[in-house]
Structure formats: C-alpha cells, structure tokens
Amino acid sequence: MNIPAKSFAQIFNSGFWEGQQLLTDGTLQTDDGTTFRIHRVVLSQRSRYFRALFSFNLTQEPIVIKNTDHEILESILLYIYTGDAILDEKNALDLMIASDYLLLDDLLENCRSFAIQNMTCTNCLSSLSVAWQIEKLAIRDDCYRYALVHFEDILKTTDGGLEELPFEILKKLLESKSLNVISERSVWKAIVKWTETDSSSRLPRASTFNLLQTGRRS
Questions:
Q1: In this structure, what DSSP letter does residue 87 have?
Q2: Which CATH number does 1-118 carry?
Q3: Which residues, given as ranges, of the chain have pLDDT below 50?
Q4: DSSP state of 63
C-alpha cells in the first residue's frame, strides 16, 4: 500500500522520484516567500498554464504564483508528481480555485466531486459563493440546488454563511419558485438576518427583492 507523502520534499526520498531533486530546473514561490524546486517538463505535461508559462519564461529566477497559499501550492505539486489529491473540508475550495487558475482540469473535477459528496448546510453557501465567481467549476448548480432544497435547515444554522452571501446570489435564491420553505416568513427572516449584518449598505437593497410572483405560501 502506497502512503501519500506528507510534504512535497518527501517524494524525493524514495520511490520513482528518489534523488530526482538534483535535476530540478525551476523554482516556484508563493507570496509568503516559500519556495519549491520543480521540474519544468513535469509541470508542463500536467498543466496548460505551466506549459505556456515555461515556454516564455526561461529565467532561473523564482516564479511567484500569486494569491496561492504555500500549503495549497504544495498540495498541487504533490498531485502533479504523485497523482494523490489530499482533500479535506478546509482545503477543497481553495484547491478548487487554484486548480481552475492553473488549468488542472482533473484536479478541479476531483475537488468538485469531493465538495458535492461532503456538502452540508454549514458549507453549502460558502461553496456557492466561490463557485458563483468561477462559472466553469460546474459545482455552482449543485450548490444552488442543495441550497434551494435545504434552505430551512441552512437558516437554522449559526454558521451557514447566509450573512456573507453576495446580494445577487441571495436574491436569486429567495426569488426562486423552487425555494423549499415552510412559509414566506422564512424568506423574510433570511432577508432580515442578511440585512442586519450591514444595515447601512444593505437596507436599500433589501427593498428590491421581488417576492410577489413566487407563488409560495405566506
């Protein structure tokens, strides 16, 4: 049984990549200064982003991968070199964003599958907010349907993310005829909860919800 490496450096200690660190020909760096020595040809084979990057950037200076945490970049490198994606609820969304940016379609699909299988009333709206920004993640529709069906339960959670939800997403949810609520009171409760988080800027927008044509019970 193969045990996934806990760090990128460990893959060079045994197995297929043993000793291959001596042949690295590039360096990736995160915003916090963490660096990783890499083989350009390996990354180019797995990612169209890196293939394009290394085709034009021939310098030996470290290449900074912006807006990517060093732990996320390390997880991505582990996946590129070993095929092992170590996913959990804490890193799945960040890995999803990074794999989309770095054009790692297979890892992106793994993250999507993980997020769907582990979707709950607590993390559904945060996943929806992320997916809303990156349409091709495809997970957006899954999160949206989950939120519609489980909206009453989401509303009951103290950390469901309703207060941080962007206006356009909340509006689409609340105005949907498919929203599964006991009565319209639940909808108004959601509006009040969302508005009270920042009443000065949100109160004018709260009045724009169109709930009269939903056909739901009051």
A1: -
A2: 3.30.710.10
A3: 1, 212, 215, 217-218
A4: E
